[in-house]
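User: Before I run my own analysis I want an independent prediction to cross-check against. Here's the chain; please return only the structure tokens and, at the end, one sentence I can use as a sanity check.
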Amino acid sequence: MKIIQILVGQPQVRFWKGQEVLTSIFKYPVEGPVALDFLNLAGDAQADLRYHGGADKAVYAYPAEHYPYWCEKLSRPMLEWGSFGENLVLEGLLEAEVQVGDVFEIGTAHLQAIQPRQPCYKLGLRLDEPKAVKYFHKAQRPGIYFRVLKPGVLRAGDTLTRITAAEYPLGLLELNRWLTIEPHNAVLMDKIRQSPILPQNLRAYLESLG
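Assistant: Structure tokens:
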């Protein structure tokens, strides 16, 4: 398991469906060592902190293995790294192999897998595809949001090592399935409720459901 590429981006204005949109979903490769604190990689920022960023969405990673699927789905000969707004393009770590709460050492940092990506309409802007969010949910290839437990320095080529396995068995894809295609699955929801490690936004959402 390793980092193929590191990408960061700053808020910028783009046009989508005739409207100005401020977004940071366009990420660009960076070379050499990149510092990581509890909220961001150096040089990265979010345009709308109501829905993006924060400790539970500090780093977004996407598996390189998914790119061939998306090239076929979107009828594109190729897609550049960062097409999903990710900070890290990873090789060798798929969502199906990740439990919510797993901790990985990457470079000199420690990152905890915390939740799947739930994209907004800006994914459609990034991919120039109005149905991108619908396709994304159906594909069940959400990528991984990490919480930073220990800041450090990352480089492309750094390996990932799982140093702590989550004690509670909640798969990242189980959580994603409930959020996207099985919201009325009571058994799955009960399992998610019992997880001791959930991002604050999802815990609040569960509480709002009663």
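Sanity check: The radius of gyration is 16 Å.
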